[in-house]
Amino acid sequence: MEDSVIGWAKAAFLLPYSLFRVLTGRKDFRDPVLGSERLNRKGLHVWRVKTTARITEWRRRKLRHLVSDAERVFFAENGYIERRDLLAEADFRALVAEVEALKAPAREMREGRALTRRIPLTPDVLAHSPMLRSFLRSERWTAPIRYAGGFNVEPFLSIQTIVGEPTANPSEKDPQTDLHMDTFHSTAKAWFFLYDVAEDEGPFTYVAGSHKLTKRRLAWQKRMSVLASQRRGGGAFRIPAASLKRLHLPEPTKFSVPANTLVVGDTFGFHARGLSVRRSVRVELYASQRPNPFLPFINLDAAWLPFVSGRKEVISWYFEDWLARLGLRRLIWRSVGEVSARENLVDRP
């Protein structure tokens, strides 16, 4: 009896905060409001999906000048932008050489047997990397990311290395190889591939058109939100490839692409990391952009604050470290010191 009273009092105390989170990018269905089965049966989750989609389209119209008419039409239909031969050959070779020579503080995360390493491209790193600094400021890189995300803001930036390991053990499976959406609203992620990507070595995979809010997709979102409310799970919903036909969606596109290719995707659409049939190493420049989706402002950027520009990912890791020390969450990204993109790619606990 006492525990139930304490639980009720705690829920009542936190209710205003939970109500506030409805208008943020929060996607945790363990939240008493966001995870309310009753509210989601009445359409709370679907309302969030539809409302943020309308706001995103409004913001994108403000940024339509950033991409060509052809790219804008293609993106609206497919959910991604692909640019091959992004740089002149000499510039690209110089950029890759600079990345290969660079050593800087990095962190790693393991999912199943897959290893992801990120070297944040902070002002300190870029001060000694003129080719990288110039490239990251160029419109050919920044414009499609800003348009896809619908925000004229600085994304998280890093050199990303992904090591794929095939396994027959379900407990060691990389969860990123399941088709999934990142969250309930449009977000932008970008990959500029520094080396050729083979079809059987973990390529980025995307279901063309799966970013669109069709009646079938909205019905699926509602069903998944109710299930997530019952299970108190997360909001990065997964979908079996066999279920794509029910939503009238095509087979996934595998981005087996040559080096010097940029891919920018709306990761509300279904995507995954392709399977590797052998140990594979993928190195890329990586960017992600996920401000509050309810914001109508295209230029509101935390990078305006002192010491934030170029350090967004590092700051998020500092918060993760702090919460982990307090025992409030598990530490995911672990420091591995100063390394290069391909150095010491071995198993870590």
Q: Look up the CATH topology.
A: Jelly Rolls
Summed over residues and divided by their number, the pLDDT gives a mean of: 93
Low-confidence stretches: none
Structural class: alpha+beta
Number of helices: 10
Written as H for each helix and E for each strand, in order along the chain, the element string is HHHHEHEEHHHEEEHEEEEHE
Output the strand order for the largest sheet. 1-8-5-10-4-3-2-11
Assign the CATH class. Mainly Beta
Determine Rg (CA atoms, Å). Answer: 21 Å
Biggest sheet character: 8 strands, antiparallel
Furnish the topology, listing elements before pairings.
Elements lengths: L1 H20 L15 H5 L2 H19 L6 H10 L1 E4 L5 H13 L2 E8 L2 E7 L2 H4 L3 H8 L1 H11 L6 E9 L23 E6 L10 E3 L8 H17 L21 E2 L6 E6 L4 E3 L6 E10 L22 H14 L8 E6 L10
Antiparallel strand pairs: 1-8, 2-3, 2-11, 3-4, 4-10, 5-8, 5-10, 6-7, 6-9
Would you give an account of this structure?
With about 350 residues, the chain is of the alpha+beta class. It has a single domain (about 25-340), classed as Jelly Rolls. It contains 10 helices and 11 strands. The chain has helices at about 1-20, 35-40, 45-60, 70-80, 90-100, 125, 130-135, 140-150, 215-230, 310-325; strands spanning about 80-85, 105-110, 115-120, 155-165, 190-195, 205, 255, 260-265, 270-275, 280-290, 335-340. The strands form 2 sheets. Strands 1-8-5-10-4-3-2-11 form an 8-stranded antiparallel β-sheet. A 3-stranded antiparallel β-sheet has the order 7-6-9, with no helix packed on it. Helix 3 crosses helix 9.
